[in-house]
C-alpha cells in the first residue's frame, strides 16, 4: 500500500522557480531600463547634433556671455542697473520684475476672486448677477487682449505730465504712470522693515500658541487684536528709536516729466491689472464651488447656535471648503505666473523681455531660452511645493 508524502513525513516537492522573463517585477524593471536608455540615447543624439551644427556655423556656445557688458537700458528695475552692467545683472533685473508681478498678482487675485466668489452666492439678486456677469465675461476674453485693453486705457485716457491729475497732495496721474511720495533716504527705514518682519514671525508664534492653548483649555485668545498690536508696535518702536524721521521725497514736475518720489509705470499697472482681473474670474468659480461643496447642514447647525452669517462663513464654511479650493487654486497661481511672460507684448521688462534682448544681441538662443525655462520651472515648483505644504496643513485629521 503506497503511503502519501504527508503521512511519511517527506517534504513536498517545491515548484520550480520560473525564469526572470516570466517574473512580472523583473520584466517591469527591464522595460523601464530599456525606455530610460532610449531616452538618454535620443537626448545624446540631439545634443551632439545641435553642437555639431553650431560649431559648423561658428556660433558660440556656453554661458560665458553672461559676464559681458549688456549695453542696453531697462526701464524698470528693483536693483541698481545701468547698460554698463553684465547680462547676468540684466537677467536678474528681469527675474525680479517677474517675481514682483507674480507675488502682487497672486495676492490681489486671491482677494478679488474670493470676494467675487462669495458675491455669486449672495442672496442679493443684483450682487449675485453682477458677480456672475463679471466671471462669464472676463474669463472668456483672452488675457492678451485684456492686457492690450488695460494698456490702452491707462496710456491713452490719462493726460500728459504737464496736465497730470492731482487727486491727492503729492500724487500725480499721467500717461507716464502714477507718481507718489516716497520715504526719505534714511537708514532707519531698513530697520523698520526688519522690525516688521520680526513682528510677522512673532504673530505666527502667537497664533500657534493660541491654537494650542485653545485645544488644551478651550479658552480663546484674541489673536487678531494681539497681531495688529504687534505688527504696529514693533515697527513704530524702531521708528521712534531711530529719531522718528518724517522727511518725504515729494515728486515735482521738472521739464517734461516728474522727478522725485516713486512711480508705477503704465506697463506695470496694465500687466498687474490684467492678470489680476483675469485670474480672479477663475478663482471666483473655484471659491464658489468649494463653498457649495460644504454640506448645507453645517450652515444650518451654525445658524441654529445663533452665529452671524459672516461668522458662519469665516469659521465654519471656509475652513472646510479650503480642502477643495486649494488644489485648483494652485493651478491658477501657476497660470498667473506663466501668463506674466505676456508682459513683452506691452513693453514691461520682465524676464522674457530681457532674455529676448539678450538673445538678439548675443545670438545664443539655446542658452537664453534655457535660462527662461529653468527660471519659470523653478518658480512654478516653488509655488507648488508651498501650496502642497499648505494643503497638507489644513487637511482634516481623522481621530
Automatic annotation (TrEMBL):
GO terms for molecular function: transmembrane transporter activity. Residues 95-387 form the ABC transmembrane type-1 domain. It is found in: Cell inner membrane; Cell membrane. Gene3D superfamilies: MetI-like. Pfam families: BPD_transp_1. The chain crosses the membrane at residues 28-47, 101-121, 188-207, 228-248, 268-287, 368-390. Keywords: Amino-acid transport, Cell membrane, Membrane, Transmembrane, Transmembrane helix, Transport. It is a multi-pass membrane protein. GO terms for cellular component: ATP-binding cassette (ABC) transporter complex. Its main location: membrane. GO terms for biological process: amino acid transport. Coiled coil: none annotated. Belongs to the binding-protein-dependent transport system permease family. HisMQ subfamily. NCBIfam families: HEQRo_perm_3TM (TIGR01726). This is ABC transporter permease. It comes from Skermanella stibiiresistens SB22.
